[in-house]
Amino acid sequence: MQIYGSLTALQIPIPYPMKTVTVLLDRPADGPVTLVDTAIYTPEAEAALAEGLGAAGLGWGDIERVIVTHHHPDHYGMAGLIQERSGASVQMLDVEIGRSERYWHQWDAWLPGHIKHLRDHGAPEALIETVEPDGRRGLARVRPAKQVEALREGARLPLAGLEWEVMWLPGHSDGHLGLWNAGESLLIAGDAVLPRVSPNVSLYAYSRPDPLGDYLLTLGKLSALDPARAVVGHFGPLMTGVQERARDLRTHHHGRLDFIAAEVAREPRTAYELSLAMFPRNLSDGSRRAAMAETLAHAEHLHLLGQLGRTWEARGWVYHP
Ligand SMILES: [Zn+2]
Ligand SMILES: [Zn+2]
């Protein structure tokens, strides 16, 4: 699907409920052949991306630049593969490079801290036991880039014959990148805003201390920007009504904050215990850990605002009024 001029969107299959991820391909008359995001590293995604390139008369070796919105496997997964095959420059926001390295290059060194963090917030041992095998399966779906160049917030770069401003849109990930062209009122948004689902906002051992606070500021930025159109990572490639969606997402998170505050007032609990109230359905271990990280982002936001206390007890950090 054509987005603007030489910029087109491919929908690449991913083994997640969202089904596909958007990969942008730019083949300008004058400028580097560029991908924005790469999709996950699975045989299906690799074949679909090869087909998309082929339809544009391109092969792997023709890619000169890869811009990655954030380090999650469905966006970053093939960055290393593409770099190995083409020598392309892989570029990410400066803040995100460290997150990506810690996660994909130093996973073994980082794992004990991750496990301690889960345990400290009340995760039971049965939920801890599957962290390592689940994590190793995830690692197999990412081929990380050996060299990544840093982009800085406010920098300008060319794409599809236009000049774009690099934006920092943290929350869903610490160094989430957006690209903004004011003339076209077009935002390349990745997962910073999505139709249909609320982008997950999670607190992990390696996150900035208040990802939800970051995300609420990002929603304010998106609201103020009021793009006519946004290219989104899932359920797109294009969405309109970003300002209204940003307001709805803010209301959604405020509702969750109220829920947590009310639950804690009823009975002080760990983030894990609160996650059972916020997400009461039976979940797989991976989804339960994600639910816990999302709950923790909300509880910790209230704690950092001084609206909830937190004390250390035998079962971990317990939030109280
Ligand atoms: Zn993501
Ligand atoms: Zn995604």
Automatic annotation (TrEMBL):
Instruction: Spell out the InterPro entries in the cross-references.
Output: B_lactamase-like_C, Metallo-B-lactamas, RibonucZ/Hydroxyglut_hydro, Sec-metab_biosynth-thioest, WH-like_DNA-bd_sf
Question: Which residues belong to any copy of the Metallo-beta-lactamase domain?
Answer: 18-234
Instruction: Indicate the secretion signal residues.
Output: none
Q: What is this protein called?
A: MBL fold metallo-hydrolase
> Lineage of the native species?
Bacteria, Thermotogati, Deinococcota, Deinococci, Deinococcales
